[in-house]
Every structure is written in C-alpha cells, then in structure tokens.
Amino acid sequence: MTGDEAAAWLASLFAGLSLSLHDGIPTASATHDGRPVAVTVGFSSVDSGLVMDADPATAVRCEIVCSADQPAPVLEAAVVAAARELEMLGVPAQPGVALEGLFDRVETAQVKSVRHGYLREPQLFERGTPTYSEPGQLTLLLELVALTDEEFQIAAEQGPYVLERRLRRRGVRLGDWHRSRD
C-alpha cells in the first residue's frame, strides 16, 4: 500500500483526518467518538514477518492507532515511539506485545500515571477491526494503549486475557493517562 492509499484508507475510518509529520514520520490525527486519535501512516510498509495462517503468501501488516484524552501531537508522539521501538526490537507488531517504559519517552503537559505501552486488537469500532486487503498483503489497525505499572505487571505475568478481563471488571478508562496509579 502506498502512502496515499494508506491515507485514503485511514480517512475512510476517521472523519476529518489531518495528515502531518511527527519527528519525520507521517502520522494522522482526528477525533473518533469524541476523543482525539492519532495513527501512523505508512508503518504498514514495515515487514515484521507476520503472514496469514490460511495463506502464507499474504503478509499481515498494521498501522498503529492510539486514542486518549491527550492533544494530537502527544498521541502522534506515542504512535511514532511505538513504531520505532517495534522496529528497533525487531518484534512483530501484533496484539499482546508489551512495550516497557514507552510512555516515559512521550512528553505531556501534565504528570501522567501510565508508563508502558501495550498493543491489542482495536476496541474503537463496533464492527471489529478495519482491514485493507490487496494482493499479497492484509493491513489492519493495531491499538496502542497506555498501562500503569500494575496493569503492565498483570499483562507480563498473567497474559493479555487476564489483563483485558481485569480492565473490564474495574471499568478502567484506558484513554485517561492520569488515572490512579492502582
């Protein structure tokens, strides 16, 4: 998918999408369901080695999206930091990947209680994860959420299913980066 195709696909998902460069990396920002959102534009060109089980000739790629009660430049910094860390670590971009200390490197105007990044299947859309299919490649969105130290520890020790269940039971608003430190 070209950069223009990625931008067009993302614009079909997020009304009022605004393209920009954050630290030299293409990103886009918009508002989705009343909350700011930012997404990489072109991270889908990075081959992290994932392929479809049913068709190993089809690569699986992603664009990283983050939605929180933060200004667009902060969210753009977060998705860029996540993309760079995934590339640096050589880790496939997929649900369940934890990025320790990621948000320590994302500047905000206020003190935040979250420190860690976590990738999951997006829970921003009622109809499931949006995808973009083309010959030889399937691109989907991957949501970056911010976790506190306790939440990160649960993910690391007990896995993503226990983390998601605990977050739901506690009614945690993942878009609130100033939530209780647990």
Describe the structure.
With 182 residues, the protein is of the alpha+beta class. It has a domain at 3-94 and 118-145. Helices cover 27% and strands 27% of the residues. It has 4 helices and 8 strands, in the order αββββαββββαα. It has helices at residues 3-13, 72-89, 149-158, 160-170, and strands at 18-22, 25-32, 35-40, 59-67, 98-99, 116-120, 131-134, 137-147. Strands 1, 2, 3, 4, 5, 6, 7 and 8 form an 8-stranded mixed sheet that branches. Helix 3 (149-158) packs across helix 4. The longest helix is centred in the middle third of the chain and has 18 residues, at 72-89.
Secondary-structure blueprint:
Layout: H1 3-13, E1 18-22, E2 25-32, E3 35-40, E4 59-67, H2 72-89, E5 98-99, E6 116-120, E7 131-134, E8 137-147, H3 149-158, H4 160-170
Parallel strand pairs: 4-8
Antiparallel strand pairs: 1-2, 2-3, 3-4, 5-6, 6-8, 7-8
Helix pairs in contact: 3-4
